[in-house]
Amino acid sequence: MIECYIYIQQVLRGGPAVAKCITTTQQLTERIELLRNRMIKVATVKGFTSDESLAISQELDYLLNMYELKKQDRSKSTTI
């Protein structure tokens, strides 16, 4: 179990924004994969330095850091 990481997801363009909460490692890895794929698509169309590419990259960096910290926590708890 991880802390709740809340992100805002826009369901459809122009549609309502929905708050989502990541509480499991599986949800975290699924969000990381989704963002990786989205970043590739956005960067290909809009460029690597577009505002949207940078925003996705920043969220992805944050989630990857969170994942690494959780992985380190798990390895410490299993070695004790």
TrEMBL record:
Q: Which Pfam families match?
A: SpoOE-like
Report the superkingdom from the record.
Bacteria
GO annotation terms (biological process): regulation of sporulation
- Example GO molecular function term? protein dimerization activity
This protein is called what?
Spo0E family sporulation regulatory protein-aspartic acid phosphatase
Q: Which organism does this sequence originate in? A: Pontibacillus yanchengensis
